[in-house]
Amino acid sequence: MLLVYTYNTHSGINMYDVxxxxxxxxxxxxYCQPNPSNPVSNSxxxxxxxxxxxxxxxxxxxxxxxxxxxDWYVMPRIRIDSSFAADPANFNKPICKIIILDFKxxxxxxxxxxxxxxxxxxxxxxxxxxxxxxxxxxxxxxLVVSPGWxxxxxxxxxxNISCKVDFRVWYYGECEMWIDRVRVENEVAHRLLSGNDxxxxxxxxxxxxxxxxxxxxxxxxxxxxxxFNAIPCIKYVNHYIDSVTTHNFSLMVNxxxxxxxxxxxxxxxxxxxxxxxxxxxxxxxxxKTWLNVSYALEEAKHxx
Length: 304
Known about the structure:
Number of helices: 6
Oligomer: single chain
CATH class of the largest domain: Mainly Beta
Strand order of the largest sheet: 1-4-9-6-7
Strand content: 15-25%
CATH architecture of the largest domain: Sandwich
Largest sheet: 5 strands, antiparallel
Structural class: alpha+beta
Number of strands: 13
Radius of gyration: 22 Å
């Protein structure tokens, strides 16, 4: 199922899949090798034509399920050569550009990441580590897309074939670059997964305290009808509940197969296997309980 969170096009030369043993946790990343004598010859698309690309245009069944009201955070996880970045003569050189497109393939945003953006502040030294957020991007040219409805301004129901939402990365060939992924989160997920949002943390703790104060009435927390892209948030909330309640409560889920697979191309031809559900949902979110049932009483009738 994760294979659809990838791209159809990789057109640059001297770009290789490698295991990065120097930084991170030995992730398999895309390494882009420069040609100092002729950077243009090594420039090209690192990634282009996202496969699972309908999540930003989701209309949902009700307002709460729609992604359109939320801002979107685009977070390419990239590192560059620290020695190249340390030279003041290179500070303004472009590394790559991120191009964000809507469902009609109109460009919403083009953001050029330069050497000087690989810092935490003006006086910091870049040590060659991976970043997902970048320093000193212009306010009107950053990686936050707002409001979310501009991905689908016509409020159209779009299938995978006609939807052109994309998050492209173009490499300029100036400097060594390693890219792990392009992560995209809506505002709710971004606040939750950052782990330091006071409003959300207080909300979760209040719910946990309520459960612990009423153990005879509250047995567990429950969520139903979620999409595949909600699993990181489900995992976070489940671990939070388990930790705060000292393992007395957890989060259980009700799996709706149609929503779980809605991100896949030709979803009507594809069903996740039991092994995939176990790996990508149960094990990934560390679930103790999950339900796979229909609404048995929805059509119940009684006659005398």
